[in-house]
Design a protein that fits this description.
The chain has 509 residues and is of the alpha/beta class. It is built from twelve helices and 25 strands.
Length: 509
């Protein structure tokens, strides 16, 4: 009787073990995942892993349906949807128009720079046209129209992506003054960023010297609350600004023994900055502008000084303006590549808003989410199954995506007409962008097979993408997503553990 009972218990344990491992692949990759997630630094973290071949064969999984904060892996979804919805050859257009009349070469009225949402205007990105070259094209349009002087103003018109708060609603307060926390409008300049030079005071307790580098914004008032800290202390200088007033404030501490430093901040008045620089360019090239620069307030009024309110003069309706021509940006495939390789938040947010407008939605948060969900559904994906979108860049910690959803999205993108452009937009180890120093000791053949996007924030490190076979055939790629959240260890400690999983997946292909 005892032998029979022992036998039945053994059978029950065997069946339970088989049931527990049902659906879990018995691959080298899976064994690597199991080992990595069971040991520090990831044993106490939230980790999700999913990897499969394009034919659907699962190679590794761990918490694959758990939704985690993806950080900049969110840009995969944003750029992919933009390419699929708008087309890889889509270009942003900026137009010039005017109200009033042209008499004897003088524009008796205002000249409008009608923004089309181009994120590259005045940008130093590789895909952007230099500002002076762009302005030269605009000047040529004016001369062709017979305009030799402007009696009114040069108006920066950002209304095509109109929003009271172009910054993401889910972004933290300390991100908003940074260059990566700048929000897009319909007319931008230098990615709506501004650089300052900082030098320490001569002794601790004194104010550091903070000066504008580029772009110049003479309409701004800057208040310096920062102090010079002791030797070998941390640099904690930060910047606070708002679209409500042309005023910015600096606070924090800058070490006395540190050399000069460039602080990269946000500029809440990109449209005005564009109008100011073009107005200055016109003056330098013999085209007088009597009224100076202006932009349009959120309530639709012209304003000579940036801030929340205009001067009471309504801006002309865009439909009523006399158009004299326009210029176009680089193709979307180039902008998508810049977005993913450099992890450009500003470009990503612009793409999400543009996608929303082109699909017939607005540019507010709810509309952008609805547009993205509609675009995901058009790819055959169900957002409710593993994705909650809160912005386009991943800067918000309110984004949640599961590894399984990322993999299914990447697999769906590989079957679209823009698969080649999407794949080309992704960085590879040793190449341009955020993965330049990834897998430094690996051979070139290995690095050339990896196409993936990184994502990192405090306590978060993620990688999702493709591992191509030796012949580069995307239809036989391994698609993977590795998301780690709530890690207390530094990224340089976590990263090698994730590398082990990627290397094991590459060995499967």
């Amino acid at each position: 009787m005892r032998l029979r009972t022992a036998f039945l218990i053994s059978v029950a344990l065997l069946l339970a073990a088989r049931s527990a491992t049902a659906g879990i692949p018995q691959t080298l990759s899976q064994k690597t995942v199991d080992a990595v997630v069971s040991r520090p630094p990831l044993a106490s973290a939230s980790v999700g892993v999913f990897a499969m071949r394009m034919d659907g064969d699962t190679l590794a999984c761990h918490n694959q349906r758990v939704k985690l904060v993806p950080a900049s892996n969110m840009k995969l979804i944003t750029t992919g949807l933009a390419l699929a919805s708008l087309g890889e050859d889509f270009r942003f257009e900026t137009r010039l128009g005017y109200d009033g009349t042209i008499e004897d070469g003088i524009l008796k009225g205002d000249l409008y720079i009608i923004g089309g949402g181009d994120p590259t205007t005045g940008s130093k990105a590789q895909c952007a046209e230099p500002a002076d070259a762009l302005f030269a094209s605009w000047l040529k349009l004016l001369r062709t129209a017979g305009i030799k002087a402007v009696s009114g103003r040069v108006v920066g018109d950002p209304r095509c992506l109109g929003s009271i708060t172009p910054e993401g609603l889910g972004w933290t307060y300390d991100d908003l003054g940074t260059n990566y926390g700048a929000g897009p409008t319909g007319l931008n300049f230098f990615e709506n960023a501004q650089n300052f030079s900082i030098k320490p005071g001569s002794s601790p307790g004194q104010k550091p010297d903070i000066r504008v580098r580029y772009p110049e914004t003479p309409w701004m008032t800057f208040v310096n609350h920062a102090t010079t800290g002791g030797a070998r202390t941390r640099n904690t200088v930060y910047y606070i600004n708002t679209h409500l007033s042309p005023c910015g404030e600096f606070a924090g501490s800058f070490p006395v023994d540190r050399n000069g430093y460039t602080l990269e901040c946000s500029n809440r008045f990109g449209a005005y900055t564009c109008a100011y620089y073009f107005c200055r360019y016109l003056t330098a090239n013999g085209v007088a502008v009597e009224g100076g620069a202006s932009d349009i307030s959120p309530d639709g009024h012209l304003r000579a000084t940036p801030g929340i309110a205009g001067d009471g003069t309504p801006a002309a309706d865009q439909e009523s303006l006399s158009l004299i021509g326009g210029t176009r940006s680089a193709a979307l495939k180039s902008i998508a590549r810049e977005t993913n390789c450099e992890s450009d938040n500003f470009f990503a947010e612009t793409l999400l808003k543009t996608l929303s407008v082109k699909r017939g939605y607005g540019t507010d948060y709810d509309s952008c989410v609805s547009a993205a969900e509609a675009a995901l559904s058009a790819l055959g994906l169900n957002p409710a199954s593993g994705c909650r979108i809160f912005d386009g860049s991943g800067l918000s910690r309110k984004n949640y995506v599961s590894p399984a959803f990322f993999v299914n999205f990447l697999a769906a993108m590989a079957r679209t007409d823009v698969a080649g452009a999407f794949l080309a937009s992704l960085p590879q180890p040793g190449g341009k962008g955020t993965l330049e120093y990834k897998f430094p000791s690996a051979d070139a053949a290995f690095r050339s097979r990896i196409r993936m996007k990184s994502g990192s924030m405090n306590g978060i490190l993620c990688y999702s993408g493709y591992i191509l076979p030796q012949d580069g055939d995307l239809s036989r790629a391994v698609v993977f997503s590795i998301l780690t959240n709530n890690t207390t260890a530094s990224s340089w400690v976590v990263s090698p553990q994730i590398d082990k999983i990627i290397e094991a997946l590459a060995a499967e292909n």
